Amino acid sequence: MKTDSPFRKPSLSLTNVFKYMMESGYNPCYEYSHIQFEFEGNIAVVEYENGFASVKIFFSIEPEEFDMFIEASNQTMIKTYSVKPVGLEDRENIVFSCEFFCDGIRDFRRFFPRALECLNEGLCTHKAEMKKIFIERGTAKRTIPDMEDSISGIGRKLLS
Description:
By secondary structure, the protein is α+β, with helices and mostly antiparallel strands. It has helices spanning 14-23, 66-80, 105-137, 139-143; strands at residues 29-30, 35-39, 42-49, 52-60, 84-87, 93-101, 147-149, 155-157. It is elongated.
């Protein structure tokens, strides 16, 4: 049997990924089907199966913001090309994912940092798009008060 066959079984496993992440300081938790860790204040997950790895970041939104999330997500996909946002059934939890093919730990080591960069870029782009939508819809004016009440009850203008 040829060793360079395109049908050979990938040598990467979640155990190898977990060891790499421990060595790299991510402090992951090993689960049966995935590896979980914290990234930029959000829960992140690495999954791997049959030569295909994915890195996902989970975060929450307010249910009434779901339509704005969809609009901002479309803009994020257009601008980043590699981040796929998905809204979960509860309409409060969101997943951003980045997928890539890899056969061994060398491939994973090469692509994993870039996947995290793409996801972080996607999160930043998404936040900027959400802010832009809030402003366009006038929501920011309703949620950000013009005056701040002091303890004495006398209003004062915000300086920033």
